[in-house]
Amino acid sequence: MQGLMMDYPLTLDRILEHANKLFPHKRISTKQPDGSIHRYTYADLYKRVKRLANVLQKLGVKQGDRVGTFAWNGYQHVEMYFGIPAIGAVCHTLNIRLFPDQLAYVVNHAEDKVVFIDATLLPLFERASDKITTVEQYVLVNAPQGIETKLPNIVHYEDLMADVDDDFEWLKLDENTAMGMCYTSGTTGNPKGALYSHRSMFLHTIGENQANALGLTEADSVLMVVPQFHAMAWGLPYACAYSGAEMFMPGPHLKPEPLAEIIATEKITVAAGVPSIWNGLYHELRQNPRDISSVRALIVGGSAMPRSLIKAYEKDLHVNVLHAWGMTETSPLGTVSKLQSHHANLTDEEKWDIKAKQGYVVPGIEMRIVNDEGEELPWDGTTMGEVQVRGPWVVRDYYKLEGSSNQFTKDGWFRTGDVATISDDGYMQITDRTKDLIKSGGEWISSVELENTLMAHPAVREAAVIAIPDERWAERPLAAIVLTEDAGDITADDLREFLLPKVAKFWIPDKFVFIAEIPKTSVGKFDKKVLRRRYTAGELG
Asked: Is 329 tagged catalytic?
């Protein structure tokens, strides 16, 4: 017997309708490339999304077509987040930090029909354009008239928008229609496409806005430092629109000083970004203090935030850090690390131990850890296993690779590649990626734990640990270290002494190398494959 429930498709136009009816006055602000700030309201967004839907139909975009976006975080990019899915097309956010060959591969693999390009990023895109075969139309955003480019079939975004009206009736789409696509950052092999549906993103939005998750409300002003190409800006544009929270988009202004200014002057309450961003911001705020007391949650994801940095933010700057975990394949939110009522009487040090974990699954996601045989392991806080997840916003396969990937189990779980423990009260802590674990003399060494311990040293700004070959032990750890500006004469022996009381003796790296900067992936994670290549080439001593 079926339930007598209303047929109400979970499509993204419902989110925009809600924002327009309840929060038409709330603002979306963007720091433009020239430093000026563009502001408008959800009512303006609503009308311009309808204009964009008309533009896309005029360009010949049909349901199911992929439409690429190559742009900074900004109000026009938010319009694309809603306008492209509004006609049943797929918003394919292109990573602006991909190498030209990777960018061309992703555009061709997705078969993007139209690509929107921010004018300041045009030189980056042009490097890949000779190898791109599928695009029929390029739309330039914020470009001066008469701009010179090697790209064919150029039109200007605002010209197109001025040529149509905002009379558009939402299409009656099936909620399982694809709405968005993001490609993984391609740490091994070619990037792989994760395709999201209206239903999955709608449910992700509800999941993200739960009080036990990010809990956004109309009182919030959210700074999205996380790029819009990084798993749809972690779904935050949709979460803000549904909750009525104001959005602030930093555009290309991602260095510590402008971010600190934005937080202080705009009274930001929630800011979201990767650890490397918050590491730089912390040092900026220590050197040039500003009033950032408005911040109620500094959301960190993308990779593990060192416990020492969490402690520093909370103790020195009185800013609450909210650790989260997810992946492109999970849309991305999977877990958050909020303290619960039974933690109330813990010491600050014990609380920071918990906040350094990736946390508990948000309602809507299921999680387990398994051994190499696929057997489920206990939640006891010490047993390590591979993290597997499933839920309504977790992909079931990769685009155009259906059935060929071994990352999906036969019983419907996604193999994340993360190795973790889970405590008896459900807090997950990642100990490593399966490919980054170091096996020395038959014993496992966690590169993540070593990195976090090293970054607790006051002279260490960043630390990345990789495995290097060893005749006796098979593998040993090498630590690549970036020192702070005022570190003085810190040596490898100083760091060994620092580690001795904190980790097992066999964990201590055989080799420390001091470098100016640790290479990062396109989404701000330590790029260990580059470090491994540099070691193999003899560049790390």
From this structure: yes
- Exactly one of 400, 439, 491, 536 is catalytic; name it: 439
Digit-coded pLDDT (tens) for 169-183: 999 999 999 999 999
170 tagged catalytic: no
Give catalytic status of residue 349 as yes or no. Answer: no
CA atoms within 13 A on the CB side of 174: 5
Q: If we measure between CA atoms, which residue out of 352, 342, 288 comes closest to residue 319?
A: 352
Q: In this prediction, what percent of the chain has a pLDDT beyond 90?
A: 81
Q: What is the pLDDT of residues 510-520, one digit of tens each?
A: 999 999 999 98
Q: Classify residue 305 by its DSSP letter.
A: P
DSSP letter at 520 equals B
Domains of the chain in start order, with CATH, are 12-254 (3.40.50.12780), 438-536 (3.30.300.30)
Helix (H, G, I), strand (E, B), or coil: what is residue 498?
A: helix
Q: Is 257 a catalytic residue?
A: no
Among 11, 93, 184, 205, the one annotated catalytic: 184
- 329, 449, 451, 462: the catalytic one is 329
Give the tens place of pLDDT for each residue, 129-176: 999 999 999 999 999 999 999 999 999 999 999 999 999 999 999 999
